[in-house]
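Take a record.
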Amino acid sequence: MNLRQFGPAVVVSCLVALQVPASAQSPAVDGTNAVFAIVNGQAISQKSFEMTYANYMRQTYYHRQVPEAELPGALEAVKNQIFDRILLLDEAKRRNVVANEASIARTIAEYDARYVGSPRWKENRDTMLVAVRQQLAEQSLLEQIEKAARHVADPTDEVLRDYYAKHLELFTEPEKMRMHSILLKVDPSASKATWDAARVEAQRILNQIKAGTAFADLARLHSSDPTSAQGGDMGYLHKGMIPDAVQEKIEASKMGEVTPPIDVLEGVALFRMDERVLPKVQLFDKVKARSADLYKREQSETQWNDFRAALRKDAKIEILIAPQTPRPSAKR
């Protein structure tokens, strides 16, 4: 979860008007709006929930439409974003965390440089900066709290070895195959006659190979694949890099034997598997650094999720309106 996904603020309209990023905005109560929830005594308006929901849709779903099956999870995520922001800011205050004023000053200087030619910015700058500065200060506090919650000490060798042993699948080189191919390129939209002619030509080449002509020589002469210059040598391919249907046909042939013509996306092909290397677990010493990186990344995410869940558990939260998809605004 990125704290910059947090929802709208009271200053969003002026920020948007000036194209200033409205990240990590804090929800506020509009007196004309119903109250969605109360968190540790702080009221959150239904309008704030709806704006946060709209922001979440923009960031999460390409068409801003959530699949019906994912709707409960989306509503829960939006609700938690709003609650977490309030609770994290409360926690920052409790810990006497101080906003990074130098960073805030740099950001405001960037705004000044970006909108130096905007009459609207010049006219409203001082008024807007009150709200903008507050949002930047809150963002600074949130970032510091998240950094502290995510901090993971360097693990000992014993911890790393235990992690490695329990996650061997992360340190296993997948099965790979040494492959050669000859591709007769055919446009996918070509006629049946064109495809049939390619299949006949592929069979003719296969017959030449069976008669003793070198695969590599025929690949250089006929193949449209970039590997033709290397005699059709595709190198080592991990299992899964070739479509399953094609893989099955390749494996139906014996090792070192050329397959019958196979239709592929690019045309008609002949394949030869020359070697199969079984999956291999990498030694701990070889992947120790990667183990540490994966361990710390996993622990960081777990600590962050647990930290926010604990804040919610200890908080006094009263939901007055059940989270639901906001109704579209009526068109005028």
